[in-house]
Amino acid sequence: MNVFADWIAKLHSTFIEQARWKLLVEGFRNTLVITVFALVIGVVIGSVIAIIKFFAEENKALKPLAAIGNFYVTTIRGIPVVVLLLIFYFVIMKSANGVITGIVTFGINSGAYMAEVVRSGIEAVDRGQMEAARSLGMSRMQAMRKVIMPQAIKNILPAIGNEMIALLKETSVAGYVAVQDLTRAGNLIRNNTYDAFNPLMVVALVYLIVVVLMTRLLGVFERRLRKSDKR
Amino acid sequence: MISVKQLCKQFGDQEVLRGIDLEVEKGEVICVIGPSGSGKSTFLRCLNLLERPNSGHIWLDGEDLMDPKIDLDRHRTKMGMVFQQFNLFPHMTVMQNLTVAPVMVLKKSRQEAEATAQALLDRVGLGDRADDYPAQLSGGQKQRVAIVRALCMDPEVMLFDEPTSALDPEMVGEVLDVMKELAKAGMTMVVVTHEMGFAREVANRVIFIDEGIVMEDAPPAEFFGNPKSERLKGFLSKVL
Predict the structure, then answer these.
(1) Range A21-230 classified under CATH 1.10.3720.10
(2) What is the ipTM of this complex?
C-alpha cells in the first residue's frame, strides 16, 4: 500500500507540478503533426516517382525524369535520417521552425522508401489488366487511374502501414534539432525531475498505443478493399 | 475491312511473324489455328497493336494503323478483344467492368452505358450477375462477361485470343454458344482457337499459321477435307 502511495506521489511531482504534463501533450501533438504530414509528402513523392518510372519504360521522353527519381531514391536511402535532419536544419532550411523542418525531412526521407513500395505494388498487378484496358480504348493514363492504381493500392497498403509505423517512431530523433516532440518532452521531464522511469514509460506507452491504433485502422481499410475478393 | 500486308514481328532476334498477309471482309468469321509457338496469338495481338509489329501494314477501314500519326486509342475502340485469361478488372463489379470504358472513352452517359450493358448481359444469360465481382463467377461466366465488355464498345471487329483455352471442359460450350450467336448476328470475327469443331461449323475461312507465315487459307470444308500443305496435314492428323 505504501509503495503504491509513494508512486502516486511521485507521479504527481513528476507530471502535475509545474504542469509538466503539458509538455507531453504538446510533444505528442508535434509528433503526430510531423508523422501525418511527412506521410502525406512521402506517399505523394513515392507515387509520382513510381508512376514516372512505370511510364518511362515505354516513353523515352520520361527517361531523364526517371533517372532523377533513381538518383533521389539512392541518395536518400543512403543517408541516415538523423544526418539528413541535421543537414536540413542547419544548412538548407536555416530559418524555418523545427516542426516544418521535421515534416520536410521525414517526408523526403519517407518518399524514397515509398517509391519502391509503390513501384512493387504497380508491378504486382497482372500485365493483362493494362492490355485489357488499352484494348478498350483507354489511354495509358486512364488505365493507370481506373484499373492499375486501385489494384496497386490494395497490394501496397500493408507496406504503407509498416512505413507509417516506422515513420512515427523515426520522428523521435526530431529532438536532435530542438523540435519539442514526444520523446524530447519526456526527456526534458526526466532532466528536470530526476525521475527517469515514469516519463520514459509514459512516452513508450504512448508510442505503443498509437502503433496499435494505426494497425487496427489499417486492418479496417484492408478488409474494406478486400470486399471484391469474396467468392 | 481489315487488310494485312507483310506483317513482321521479332522478339529480340527471334522472328515470330515473317510476313503475314490477310484480308478480312465485313461479317466474315476467320478462325486462326496452328501449333503453339507458331505466332498466331502474336498475330492477333498485333492487329490492335498490343504488340507493335516491326514492319508491314494493317489497314482498318482504309486507315493504316502503322501510321505513327494515327490515334491508336480511338482505333482500339473499333476492335473488341477477348483474352485467354479473361482479364476482367477484379476490383470492379460486373456492371462497372462493362461501363467503365463506354463512359470514360466513348463519353456515354452512365444510364445509357448501363442500359446497353444490361441488355447484352441478358442476352448471354447473365442478367442477374451485374452486381457480382468477377471472383464470384465461374470461368465460363467470366469469359462471357469479357465478351460483353468488348461488345459494350460497339466494335466493328471482335478479336478472340484462345477464348476457351483456360476453361474447364464443361464450360467451353457456353462460351462457344455466345460466339456462334455473335457470328450469326453478322459480327466480323477473328478467332485464334484450338476448337476445330467451332472452326468447321462457324468459320467462313480457316487460316493455318506456322513458322510465322500463313500456310493455308481456305473455307472450312476444303481446309479440313482437302488440306494442301504437308504441315497442315501433319497438324490435322494430330489434333483431329
Answers:
(1) yes
(2) 0.92
